[in-house]
Specification:
This is Tll1467 protein. This protein is α/β, with parallel strands linked by helices. Helix content is 42%, strand content 13%. Strands 2-1-3-4-5-6 form a 6-stranded mixed beta sheet, sandwiched between helices. The chain has a 6-stranded parallel beta sheet with strand order 7-10-11-12-13-14. Helix 15 links the parallel strand 13 and strand 14.
Amino acid sequence: MSARVLYIRLPCNPIFPIGVVYLADYIHKQLPGIRQRIFDLGTVPPLDFRRALPQVIDEFRPTHLVFSWRDIQIYAPVGGRGGNPLQHAFEVYYARNPLVKLRGAIGGLRVMSAYYGELWRNLNLIRLGLHHAKRHHPEVTTIVGGGAVSVFYEQLGSQLPKGTIVSVGEGETLLHKVLTNQPISGERCYVAGVEKPRDRLIHEWPTPIEKTACNYDYIESIWPEFEYYLQGGDFYIGVQTKRGCPHNCCYCVYTVVEGKQVRIHPAQEVVAEMRQLYDRGVRNFWFTDAQFIPARKFIPDAIALLREILKAGMNDIHWAAYIRADNLTPELCELMVQTGMNYFEIGITSGSQELVRKMRMGYNLRTVLQNCRDLKAAGFNALVSVNYSFNVIDERTDTIAQTIAYHRELERIFGADNVEPAIFFIGLQPHTHLEEYALERGILRPDYNPMSLMPWTAKKLLWNPEPMGSVFGEVCLAAWRLNPNNFGRTVMDLLEERFGRAPLEEALSAPLEERPLVHR
């Protein structure tokens, strides 16, 4: 009996499902005789989930179910499940007005209800899919992977049907081995209800694969909902130019999910993939790498890619990415503008070089500023989103004033209207240095549940320690009250009113002495 693989993307925000697309493309190139189908629940109305999934399974009769679970995002900085979870939490923890506290508690209950509801819904969809698939093939194989599973694989294993293969990180070689009846013990996976995951499984390096241009003629033939993402031309369609991140940022899990070895996709293959989408009317691209230019040694690869885009004649596109702005050069800046970059995000986290060093970010903030000046000189006049994660490590009034100075300099370079501060508070995630720090100091217990949204756990996982936690709580509450539609800029204004602005040189200089980490 020939294998029939059904990929089911579990419900999430309407973001192009690049992971599932690349997985199906890889399997088709390795095993062209296998039939495949992509079913994206992100394009289905919620009330139709339980009707649509069995219908597709009954039509396709898969021998293998591959579920992709993208999001279990507990602490979002913007509106999400039942409202703004960060605002609800801060109202409960820091508001002085009892009515505001009550409002936050009610909002928090809505968020909690929606969060656990989504967990149960997705788990039930997996069970429902397996139940229906067994009607046609009693020995059906089930694999569950995706971003959410890679982070919470230890917790989800006990909730999935027995025999489910839990995939961590990239799934190409795992699925290939499953389909060719090869042993999978060497892959980053385990079988739920049968075995426990190996210790530090997520820290094992993924198996490198040779990436070629995705065959969108084939993808279109197995994915009826593909046109959903092309309608109106307003979606940014994902294209991956590399995998892996070499950095050690204290709160980030990318470096273990994707591995520290950066694997570059050939520029000609990336552009060939973009060209297929371009010919279908796509003009907006998002480079889905952990970082578009993760280190200076990869600058030549970025230059080669952008030159290939110019050579391909796609001169009316726009693209965006996460970018480490310390790795720009004047030549790269010119090419970025020429190829249509119209938005980018930089996650400097803090405008204090001292804190950037302590968080293991690897940034030189002075270099970032100079490179931003080069980008502006090259003609970049679009939006920059600057991610600030306040109060992660050793935040103090003087480091706040340094961040203000740094942010104002970015505004001076690009124009205040073009610099949007995105205010985050870290949601502590498993497998990070920050989790190790919290466990070592007794802030978290070894048996804590990182998926819990119970108040006694949530306050620890929403990382905002004293003595500065209450200060940021008050400032953020004031910003939501004064100007909720311009929250980030209002937070920066209020912090400057309260703590002033340090000399820029002070922000760019890190003292040699170490300060202890601030914790509760």
